[in-house]
Amino acid sequence: MLDITKDIQSLTTFRRRSGDFMKQLKRSKRPVVLTVKGKAAAIVQDAEAYQRLLDIAARADSEEGIRQGLDDVAHGRTRSAKEAFDEIRRKHGISR
Length: 96
Known about the structure:
The protein is α+β, with helices and mostly antiparallel strands. It has 2 domains: 8-45; 49-92. The chain is built from 4 helices and 3 strands, in the order βααββαα. It has a 3-stranded mixed sheet. The longest helix is centred in the middle third of the chain and has 28 residues, at 47-74. It is elongated, with a radius of gyration of 24 Å.
């Protein structure tokens, strides 16, 4: 959860105290919103926390692919493996 008293800072403050912010990022695992002229401009976060986000997104993509595949099966949007391989052979000029 974002703590607006600690997690929203100006870019100028971040530049002046980058070492302190790096320690905070490592300790809290919360991202810091950097502002320029009072508007959000960038998000800085710990590398481990970012990797966690990437992993979650990859899992979500996989789960969505599975959901779509199951929906295709349920609605008859499938074909046999033989039909698929025959199309690949024709497309790429591969003989049996």
